[in-house]
Structures are given as C-alpha cells and as structure tokens.
Write a structure and sequence with these properties.
alpha/beta, Alpha-Beta Plaits, Rossmann fold, seven-stranded mixed β-sheet, binds iron/sulfur cluster
Length: 294
Amino acid sequence: MKRHFDRIHCTGCGNCIRFCPKGILKLSSEPDEQGIYITVTDEEACISCRSCETMCTRGAFWFSDTDEMPEDIRIMGRESLPDHAGCQFGIMAHMLSKAIVNLGIEDTVTIFRSDRSEANLLVDSRGYEAPYFFEEALKFKQEHPERLVVIFYSDPKAGPHENAKERFRNLKDEKITLIHCLGYFEQTDDYQGYRIPSEYLAEQMAQKEGASYIARGNLTTVPDTLKTERYMEEALRCQMRGEGFSVVEIIFPCFFRLEDRPKDPITPETRGRIHQWFSDSIVPEFRPGILKEK
Ligand code: SF4
Ligand code: SF4
C-alpha cells in the first residue's frame, strides 16, 4: 500500500508524530503559505503500519493500492471539521466513517448532529440547533424505521452535559445508535489533577433494560482508537438487527476549552502535556471497554 499525504488538509498539529513507531515524521522547518506541515525524514524506514493515518486529526494521511482515495477518507467531511489544530473530532469523524464504510451502510445511515461542524460526514447528515437534534433523530427513526440513525452528541462542557443527562436517561428501547463524545473534564493545578463529570452516563445507560450495547472508547493510543472504531461498528450492527439503543461513549480532551479558549493557536507541546494528563488521569478513571452487550 502506498502512503498519501494531502498537504492542504494538514494543520501541523503534530499528533501523527507522537504515534509513528519509527520516529520518521517531523514538522517542516520552513513553513509555506499554509503554515507548518509534516515531512517524512526516511521513506525507507516506513513500515506501513498506518498509525499516521489512524491518528491524523484531519484525514491528511491515507493509504491505497492505487491513487484513489479510500471511501472512509472521502466521506469523513475533512473540509468542515473544527478549525483548531489537533481537535480530536477529526479522528472521531474518521473512525465513524470507517465503521459506516466497513458495514456498507453509506446509503442507509442518517446522522443527526448539532448544526456546528463536528461530524459533517458526506452521507445523509442533518444539523439542528443543539440539543434539539436528539429529539429530531428519535422522531425521524419513528417515521423511517428502515433508516439507520446515528445521534452524534458532543458534550464538552456543563450545559451540554446537563442536556445529555436529561435526554439519555429518557431513552427506553429506541432503535438508534448514540455516539456520545464526552469531553467534559476539568483540569486542576495546571494539569496535575482533575475534576470528573458529575455523572457516569455510560454506566447508567448500561443498567437500562432497553439498551442493547454500551461501550466506552478513547483516542489516546492507536489500539484504543481502532477499538473505538470497532465499538461503533458493533453498535451500528445492533441497530441493523433491530435491537434497542446502542451507545458508544468516546472520551476526549477538548484542548480549546481546557486552555480557556486562547486567541493564539495551541502549540504541539501544550497538546502533548494535555494528552499526557488525559492518559494518566482520566483514561484510568473512564476505562475503555464494553459495558453491556446482549
Ligand atoms: S505508516 Fe507507520 S512508520 Fe510509516 S510514516 Fe506512518 S506511522 Fe510512521
Ligand atoms: S496529525 Fe494530520 S493534521 Fe496533524 S500534523 Fe499530522 S498529518 Fe498534519
């Protein structure tokens, strides 16, 4: 397989560098008009492990036997991801597009999301004002039971978390798949400590009679990211079998909010520090895994 790199989509966030096992990726020393980007220092050393593809926050790296772009990259909505370099919504959108392509459901899935840009996949994807896309999705599923409905719920701060609690708890046995992107974590003492969200929603939903599948993932390592993609696939499979609601909670650090919405771009070093804090403190508290399956 040949590695392709789309310079135009690279934000220079540096996430891929952290995961290349051969250490052959580096940021350009001479920015062009679009800023810094990634260079490969030793082509011969590349083992085609595809970690750069999995961990790229923008879909800038992709692999193909031909020069044709794979369907998962094509439909992940690279053009409309949030602006901040390093934002993990790009990885989530890519893992969701992979799950959709692997299941061959590009034409039968409908995604409901906020009207901002978090998972604007190039399938039937509908944006509504948050949090009302949730109700719109349930109504749509009742009217169109033949469609596979995904609710992409971004939950990075107190308000959305309150809304999430209220809505998730009211689920009964609706045949939908909920992707819960949980970024509501607060650092304390300059990333020495943390406050956890007030609720462990995945655990609560796993107790519900009507739930068919509940899992939690993260995007902290390559294996965990690939596992998160498989959880999404399995959650969608439950809906394809007509089972009750399925949920994949994906925990992530919202750099922008954690750094108090800075005017200047967040540096790769700061993101690295936040990644470390998140892996050491939050991931052990919110372990990845399957919490319920039938
Ligand atoms: S495929 Fe693997 S070894 Fe090659 S550049 Fe990407 S991460 Fe590095
Ligand atoms: S992760 Fe993607 S967007 Fe970020 S520097 Fe690497 S190639 Fe560029």
